[in-house]
Amino acid sequence: MNNSFNTHQPLTVNGEAFHIHSLKELGNKARRLPFSLKILLENLLRHEDGVNVKTEDIQALLDWHPQAKPTIEVAFTLARVVMQDFTGVPAIVDLAAMRDAMERLGGDPAKINPLSPVELVIDHSVQVDGYGNDGAFDLNAKLEYDRNKERYEFLRWGQTAFDNLKVVPPATGIVHQVNLEYLARVVFHKDSHGKKFAYPDTLVGTDSHTTMINGLGVLGWGVGGIEAEAVMLGQPISLLIPQVVGVKLSGRLPEGTTATDLVLTVTEMLRKHGVVGKFVEFYGDGLADLPLADRATIANMAPEYGATCGLFPIDDETINYLRLTNRDEEQLNLVEAYAKHQGLWRNHGDEADYTDYLELKLGDVVPSLAGPKRPQDRIALDQAGDVLRKHLKAFQNERIERREKSDQQQVVIESEGPVTDTDEQFNEASFKGAANVTFQGQEFELTDGACVIAAITSCTNTSNPSVILAAGLVAKKAKQLGINVKPWVKTSSPLALKSSLIICKKPV
Question: How buried is 241 (Cβ within 10 angstroms: 0-12 exposed, 13-18 middle, 19+ buried)?
Answer without folding.
Answer: buried
